[in-house]
Every structure is written in structure tokens, then in C-alpha cells.
Amino acid sequence: ILVPSTSAKPAIAALPVSPDVAVRITISFSTEEDCCLITVKNSGCTLKEDELPHLFASFYRGSNVGNAKGSGLGLYICRQLMHMMDGEIFAEIKENEFFATVVIHKV
Hints:
- By secondary structure, the chain is mainly β.
- Helix content is about 10%, strand content about 45%.
- The protein has 1 helix and 6 strands; from the N terminus they run ββββαββ.
- Strands 1-2-3-4-6-5 form a 6-stranded antiparallel sheet, with helices on one face.
């Protein structure tokens, strides 16, 4: 279920992982100096913290993907596109929650 937001409040989606567990995805927007930041928070993080440095490498797939299909190119392409636009994307894990933040410079 996606709750769209038209204000500074974050948009929230709750995704059922199993009958007992729901993952909460939150998208928030903020500004910092001359940049706009878009942050996606995933409360169902199962990625190991020592895998973070490899997350944006081409063809890298985390150990948590299980049987999910993919090529390991998605985040690599995102970072390449952000660099072409003089922006950045980075990821971090805090208290078992995954955060991906896109940094866009204001024009």
C-alpha cells in the first residue's frame, strides 16, 4: 500500500514479506546547502554491512538476494547516471534499516 505525499512528509509503503512481517519503505525529501536529497529507507534490511562497499559495483549481487532474478547492474547504472548529472547516490545501514540517498545539486 503506497501513501503518496504532496508535502514535506515522507511517502510510506508497507509491503508484506510474510504473514507475520511487513517491511516499511519510506521515501523522504530534504535540502542541504545547495543540494536536494531523496532518501529511501527500507526497514526490512537483510544486507550485511560489510557488503555496502560493493553495492554499486557492476554485476554485484548481495548475499541476501536468494532466488530473486537480476544482473547486479541496477545500482551501478544509478551511480553512473548520477555522476553524469554531477550528483551522487550512496547507501548506509543504521539500526538494521537500509538507506539509499540520491544527492541532486540545485541549479
